[in-house]
Specification:
It is built from 4 helices and 7 strands. By secondary structure, it is α+β, with helices and mostly antiparallel strands. It folds into 2 domains: 54 residues, no CATH class; 90 residues, no CATH class. A 4-stranded antiparallel β-sheet has the order 1-2-3-4, with helices on one face. Helix 1 packs antiparallel against helix 2. Keywords: Membrane, Transmembrane, Transmembrane helix.
């Protein structure tokens, strides 16, 4: 059972509409005479313009985003190559701020599976912030969390139980 996922066009369309609305709101706020509001609105405008372009790019992208199979885990949002199961130490289900995702703990640095400079920089920033495992979620994808859970249950290595030392 191979799990393959692409971007969900309905979810991305909603995100695109929201980012366009907030781009317009921040542009309108930048027309005020208050210098503080003007500065905040400029930063918000740049952020939402970037988010709009990101959503447009993802809407036009029909490539596979996530694949979990017998070879390993491939998530194009995080790495450029498949992370093979032989280097995966553990896969943990994590809940943070109401979101659920799977943390893939690798024996090798995640940067060994990344070719692009931007993804390397993001991995470095995450490691400095204490986020060492790779977080995989269904956000923006055309699969459910249950599908992701089932795929990891089928392929992820099971944690090794420590054997007890014989006592003499």
């Amino acid at each position: 059972m191979t799990l393959s996922a692409r971007y969900d066009r309905k979810k991305l369309t909603v995100l695109l509409i929201v980012s366009l609305v907030f781009t317009g709101v921040s542009y309108a706020l930048a027309m005020t005479s208050d210098p503080f509001v003007f500065g905040v609105a400029q930063v918000a405008f740049l952020f939402f313009v970037g988010l709009t372009f990101l959503n447009l790019i993802r809407l036009m992208d029909d490539r596979e985003v996530l694949r979990i199979d017998e070879a390993g885990v491939f998530d194009r949002r995080l790495a450029d190559e498949t992370i093979p199961w032989r280097v995966v130490e553990d896969v943990k289900e994590i809940r943070m701020l109401g979101l659920r995702f799977f943390a893939v703990v690798s024996r090798e640095p995640i940067t060994s599976f990344i070719k692009t400079r931007f993804k390397r920089m993001m991995a470095w920033l995450n490691s400095k912030l204490g986020f060492h495992p790779v977080g995989i979620t269904t956000h923006g994808l055309n699969i459910s969390y249950a599908d992701l859970h089932e795929a990891f249950a089928a392929y992820a290595p099971k944690p090794q139980e420590e054997s007890e030392e014989p006592t003499n």
